[in-house]
Amino acid sequence: MPIIETRNLCKRYGTVMRVTNLALQVPEGSIYGFLGPNGAGKSTTLKMILGLVRPTQGEIQVFGQPMNRGNRIAVLRQVGSLIESPSYYGHLTGEENLRIVQTLRGLPPKAIREVLEIVRLEGQRGKKVCHYSLGMKQRLGIATALLGYPKLLILDEPTNGLDPAGIQEMRELIRDLPSRFGMTVVVSSHLLSEIDQMADTVGIIREGVLVFQDTLAALHGRSRHHLALRTTNNALAAQVLREKGIGWTEEGDYLVLPILPDEQAAGLCRALVEGRLGLVRLEERQKSLEDIFLELTGGKEVSL
Length: 304
Ligand SMILES: Nc1ncnc2c1ncn2[C@@H]1O[C@H](COP(=O)(O)OP(=O)(O)OP(=O)(O)O)[C@@H](O)[C@H]1O
What we know:
By secondary structure, the protein is α/β, with parallel strands linked by helices. Helices cover 36% and strands 27% of the residues.
């Protein structure tokens, strides 16, 4: 059973549809990387899941239950979130800020010490939040979201504004959560590299439309190796490929083929030469993950 499932989820602002027919499936215990360029609709989607923005249309199920007015509060009690920059009382310490939330949620006092330890802020717990660095404030935001060990954690661009060391620390912190606490984590980002290092499942959104959703391994699978062939007469070369039962696609001056075993590649070269074709290039190439992401999100036609 997916922990989050949306069906035909849509959001219109004014006359423009910003999220269109979104069908998210977040598996239990996963780190689901929700990836897309700025303005693609990530925050809007996460806010709809959290009941902060009303969907124009569609359904949302969390923990297998449809979100509606009757059960929203009960469901959200098991969800921790960090959306946009967290706000705090700057004149209070980190610990005091956490105490407010702990009291409101009726949690035992020891919960504060535990979450401070998880986000490695014990040393700064007595410092006023107005003297915290941005990274410390983000970690305090995660600590707040972790209070009560929610089954589901939703983090919207948690590394925004952090320096490289802060980004790495945040990444390591998030990566451990499913195995340490059995949580499911949804984390949004506009950076492929970040999701690549953190997530095991990926959803890619472009202009409000989900253009990819599968495991990270499946996304990597798309960046597989292939052969690029250029001859003095590609039309004739294509005929040779057809005779040999080798599939290809055309990309500019090249015919793109799957990787062939050495014997078959040698046989192909022989056949091309025997057919009096000039063999200009036969090279192995690999599409980078970045290429795939740009194709999926940048409006270029996807050729995989
Ligand atoms: N309250 C609102 N009223 C009108 N338009 C909005 C509102 N909130 C968001 N939008 C628009 O909806 C689109 C999606 O915004 P959203 O913040 O969800 O994108 P995002 O993928 O989270 O991007 P970013 O990474 O920049 O936060 C944008 O074009 C944005 O301008």
